[in-house]
Amino acid sequence: MKLRYTTTASWHGELDETYFPPKALRRRPHWFDELVSKGDGDTDSAADLLNEIYVGIQNGLRRSPMLAARALFEQVMQGKVGDKGTFRSNVEALEQAGFVSKIQRDRLLAVLEAGHAAMHRDFVPELDNLIAVLDIAEHLVESLYVHDRKVSRLASVVPPRPRR
């Protein structure tokens, strides 16, 4: 695909440079294709929402990736512990079930609050905030979906300890 480049004047007299397709901010993680190939509802949904975050950030959107991250976290939490009625209750149930640590719980609550603010209080996150949210989203999805499968495969091939 050939890269197209255009320059236009902005309202303030500055030049806006546009590339099509937009330059990727960063690559999807090496495990992303494995997540997509699992073929079940939870991982398919997680992959779709992660993809929306990547595409939104790549295209210079700032609210949409935050909203997609909020939806991703909700989908992951409900997939693992069911719907407990509120975001806070879902995060706490995720911690109580052992899926996340206390530190991760606090981070998820902060990210969810940013998602709520983007949706309800006109919060427009900066790029570095979105990258932080993407890092947390990737970590959560990888640890709850990708690592789980890898550890199961590992456990199936490790020889048992010999009896004494």
SSE map:
Layout (H helix, E strand, L loop, with lengths): L3 E6 L5 E6 L11 H6 L3 H18 L4 H19 L5 H10 L5 H19 L6 H31 L7
Antiparallel strand pairs: 1-2
Structure, explained:
- This protein is mostly helical and about 160 residues long.
- The protein has a single domain, classed as Four Helix Bundle (Hemerythrin (Met), subunit A), CATH 1.20.120.
- It contains six helices and two strands.
- A two-stranded antiparallel sheet has the order 1-2.
- A hairpin with a 5-residue loop joins strand 1 and strand 2.
- Helix 2 (about 40-60) packs antiparallel against helix 3 and helix 4 (about 85-95) runs antiparallel to helix 5 (about 100-120).
Q: How is this structure best summarized?
A:
The chain is mainly alpha-helical and 164 residues long. It has six helices and two strands; from the N terminus they run E-E-H-H-H-H-H-H.
Q: Report how far the terminal alpha carbons are from each other.
A: 64 Å
Low-confidence stretches: none
CATH architectural arrangement: Up-down Bundle
Q: What Rg is obtained from the alpha carbons, in whole angstroms?
A: 19 Å
Q: Return the CATH topology.
A: Four Helix Bundle (Hemerythrin (Met), subunit A)
CATH class: Mainly Alpha
Count of DSSP H/I helices: 6
Q: What is the number of independent domains?
A: 1
Keywords:
164 residues; mainly alpha; Four Helix Bundle (Hemerythrin (Met), subunit A); two-stranded antiparallel ribbon; 6 helices; globular
